Amino acid sequence: MKLKRIVALVLIGAFALAGCEDGEEKTPKKEALDKNKHELVYFEQLANGDEDYPRVEMAYKDNNGKTHTYTAAGDKVYEHILKGKNKSPYVVKDGKKYHVYRTPYMTYDNKEIEGEVKDKGEVDSHD
């Protein structure tokens, strides 16, 4: 009986959490995209202890080439993955929100590698 109750509570919790997202991707306003689009220098999400959101650190260049850094809780930052191999990462500042457009961390292109192994020697590490 206890097992059924636990399973029921887990299922109810899972459905409740699934309903929290509205499913729509957040996007910046067109005005912000036109005026506040900047080249992304770096972007990292870091552990933030017991907080609900990770800490975000990023740097971007303004229109004059000056680099600005920003650190905040991740709830003010929205990530978007760029599609295409030759797209450059950028950030759009929309009020207090930041929209980061970055390349994927990993890509798989399934290209086969051909060649011939000529030496299987060990690599010597020098400490």
TrEMBL record:
Superkingdom, natural source: Bacteria
UniProt keyword annotations, A-Z: Signal
Leader sequence segment: 1-18
Identification of the protein by name: Cystatin-like fold lipoprotein
Organism: Staphylococcus succinus
Organism phylogeny: Bacteria, Bacillati, Bacillota, Bacilli, Bacillales
